[in-house]
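Lab meeting, item 3. Inverse folding demo.
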């Protein structure tokens, strides 16, 4: 969504629960996930990634893909996580709408749930080429919630 913001609908965002949004960045698009923990913020960033391509609510959770990543810090772990999702989306022609992320000691273990792309039903808007290091950040905000964000190359 160029030039604007898309936010996960519903009362959860107002109540301080997990949510995601897009933010404009030139010809590319930023994704931002928020949650009560870094793992939850990573899950929401995954949903924001899917929402760049299609409506996550239209993606059935019929297939599960296990993902493992390692990195020396949370920022690079987010970068690896999103690029792993992009890799599976591109090579297996999948879209994801559900995530379970566990973080410990510089390692991420996750399950991404989704289904093969159905062009008619999903109407993919763009192809995500990958996560970038631009505006890469994972940090706890003043309200105590965690934020995980970066810009995607589309």
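The presenter then showed the designed sequence:
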């Amino acid at each position: 969504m160029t030039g604007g913001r898309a936010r996960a609908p519903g009362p959860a965002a107002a109540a301080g629960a997990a949510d995601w949004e897009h933010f404009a960045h030139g010809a590319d698009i930023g994704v931002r996930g928020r949650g009560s923990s870094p793992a939850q913020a990573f899950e929401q960033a995954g949903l924001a990634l899917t929402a760049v391509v299609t409506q996550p609510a239209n993606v059935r959770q019929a297939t599960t893909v296990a993902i493992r990543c390692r990195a020396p810090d949370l920022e690079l772990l987010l970068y690896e996580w999103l690029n792993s999702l992009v890799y599976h989306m591109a090579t297996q022609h999948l879209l994801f709408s559900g995530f379970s992320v566990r973080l410990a000691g510089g390692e991420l273990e996750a399950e991404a749930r989704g289904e093969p792309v159905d062009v008619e039903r999903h109407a993919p808007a763009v192809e995500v080429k990958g996560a970038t290091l631009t505006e890469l950040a994972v940090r706890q905000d003043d309200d105590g919630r965690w934020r995980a964000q970066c810009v995607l190359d589309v």
